[in-house]
Amino acid sequence: FLILCQLQFPLVSKSGYIRRLVSESNDADISVIEISDIPGGSEAFELAAKFCYGINFEISTENIAVLRCVAEFLEMTEDYAVGNLVTRTEAYINEVALKSLSSCVTVLLASESLLPMAEQVKLVSRCIDAIAYLACKDSQSSGINRMEGGIEEGNSLVPQQKPIVDWWAEDLTMLRIDMFQRVLIAMTARGFKQYALGPTLMLYAQKSLRGLEAFGKGR
Question: pLDDT tens digits, residue range 39-61?
Fold first, then answer.
């Protein structure tokens, strides 16, 4: 899409990418700049422009992925302005987005449509690692509850036969299969018992098969 010349100055002051486009242009009276392949498209650019112009908008778990990726694409770093968009988005990611499992999943879902930039800024890997950490932490803290209803045999407690589906498993079913697999690998690497992943795998399979069944009926 095109950027009109009237919009350029605030963007040039904070974006290394746009500054370079302007400086490399042979047209001294350049009136428009064409940008292609911007992650998140026009919606992402609009948010970046609002940031440059000081127009208030809410940073949330729903838009933080696209903001972080467009900030990287436009090179909105501290080299061009103090408290620039890369710094602001990184602060939100570290202080808010990665602190809860549901937020991590929301950001990871948004990242699926922002590849490969979301991988480049390590947003995907950080979300996956945080999900694995938080899920394992929750599993450890609720370990005693998992054994409720168990049957005592000798000196050991045998778990009940009905599998317990963790509260966060429903969130994971929304992920793409490759992302879901990476989350499970990360959880296993952090010590999550493979047998304990059974209920989560079953739930994901049920959701996926339901989607495939609906797709088949619609053909």
Answer: 999 899 999 999 998 999 999 99
